[in-house]
């Protein structure tokens, strides 16, 4: 008789261990390893002598047309999906609690249903009365969306197999439980089993399945990372509680470009799409003030202009504060070190605060020049010209390196009324799009030309 094998799995990263320990050797987290019964024992000594079937193979060249897409009518959502929803695809949507995931998914389900695509919304967290109240508040009560409230995976799959909708929204994957897994709902085994069954169902039947997932305090999808590898598309719903803007970002997409974003605005009637996010992010800019610089960035395939705000003030602490919102803190520390080592401009004894206006998150290295300009402007109490945009990557030597899609950045800036751009000297630009270009070789020359120092 085969001996039962006990598995130990990390709830943070999903890594399997042979025995329990206090610290996961894969991700380094403490007290995250739990005991689980394995999903299946499997053969003990390989596959044996039984042969399998021969898999049909095909060449790389194919005359098959691209998969059809079902547009929702929400332009920002269709942009992130790559043009619409692909039948049989599995989509994972994550975000902080209360950020608007359920609101967005209910609006998306209603938009698909109104466009002729049959939609089913299954909630394991809210009652049917709560969903109907939300639909009335959002003006979606007349949409032909069929609602269901259930957490048993077997019942959900049976219902979807009987209904065969075009799109099914499951809110959320952490509330589902399978009767074949001896673990509590939300555990690694349950999340992995539920995701596997739903993805398999989507591929077998052609039903597009949208899974809503919670995130951890680090901002990652809760549960094993293997769930992100199982699905076709992973979307993160980002935003700050104090801002009305919400960013839907595609970090993985097998049917479209990854890194694409869709911008929404939270209103009393739900989430409204923002067709021109650059104008919205810059709408509150007034007269030029020290510490403000406009960065011409690229998010996916879309140029987006955002405002980098900096504040530098004398510190009364032994270790000055470095507060960064919307940017990579490590990269900001590197820029501060380059300013001190290459330009001779110290920030010791000064508190530094950096923020990206509107709740936007910028991870592009091309923002280095804009961040440096905002820091220098705040430190020297010298306002930058209001009609100027910045972009360029900063190296450790202080030199400015070229970035991609410069023409699209300049075109977006010119469309919003900017007439001047500061960019790296080695940046190749096919035409200036009517904008005056100022090229700088390194951070030292930029500091001297702009602030008269260095």
UniProtKB/TrEMBL annotation:
It holds the Pfam family AAA_25. Residues 351-454 are annotated as: Lon-protease-like. Keywords: ATP-binding, DNA damage, DNA repair, DNA-binding, Hydrolase, Metal-binding, Nucleotide-binding, Stress response, Zinc, Zinc-finger. PROSITE patterns: RECA_2. ATP binds at residues 95-102. A motif (RadA KNRFG motif) lies at residues 252-256. GO terms for molecular function: ATP binding; ATP-dependent DNA damage sensor activity; damaged DNA binding; hydrolase activity; zinc ion binding. Residues 66-215 form the RecA family profile domain. Signal peptide: none annotated. One of its GO terms (biological process) is recombinational repair. InterPro entries: AAA+_ATPase, DNA_repair_RadA, P-loop_NTPase, RecA_ATP-bd, Ribosomal_Su5_D2-typ_SF, Ribsml_uS5_D2-typ_fold_subgr, Rubredoxin_2. One of its GO terms (cellular component) is cytosol. Belongs to the RecA family. RadA subfamily. NCBIfam families: sms. Plays a role in repairing double-strand DNA breaks, probably involving stabilizing or processing branched DNA or blocked replication forks. DNA-dependent ATPase involved in processing of recombination intermediates, plays a role in repairing DNA breaks. Stimulates the branch migration of RecA-mediated strand transfer reactions, allowing the 3' invading strand to extend heteroduplex DNA faster. Binds ssDNA in the presence of ADP but not other nucleotides, has ATPase activity that is stimulated by ssDNA and various branched DNA structures, but inhibited by SSB. Does not have RecA's homology-searching function. The middle region has homology to RecA with ATPase motifs including the RadA KNRFG motif, while the C-terminus is homologous to Lon protease. This is DNA repair protein RadA. It comes from Paracoccus sphaerophysae.
